Amino acid sequence: MNTQTKELTKMEEIKMTTASEIQEIINHSTGSSQYFKYGYGLLLTEGVKEVCEQGCHWIVDIIASTKTIPLVRKELFQHWVLQVDLEKASGVITCDDGNGNKLYGQDIPFTDFPLKKISFYFVDNVVMLVGEY
Prior knowledge:
Number of helices: 3
Number of strands: 7
Number of domains: 1
Mean pLDDT: 89
Shape: globular
CATH superfamily: enterococcus faecalis protein
Distance between the termini: 48 Å
CATH class: Alpha Beta
Oligomer: single chain
Radius of gyration: 16 Å
Largest sheet: 7 strands, mixed
Order of helices and strands: HEEHHEEEEE
CATH topology: Nuclear Transport Factor 2, Chain: A
């Protein structure tokens, strides 16, 4: 095994570890006893804060950036989903009203986010994992 192959294997192990860590955060986030201030007037639950600390602040930045879009801004309950094609390292993030009516979508040409899917709710300026609702 050459050095390049060894390094790639190490990178893949790190990515799998990160995926399992993020999945563990999601699985154990079943409520939040406190909120954390984030830019743009947003609040994050404990679970979202932990996910962000894994290098995923950009997901919340996208949610925050849509506050200027009237269709998104007026919706009191928002369901956000990031879906990732792990083989292509690309994805799409969408927002709907919780009833499947799409409010926003954005292609993500490159992402190293390690899970195929993660969902958030955005209610009363609070970003939360689905299990924290």
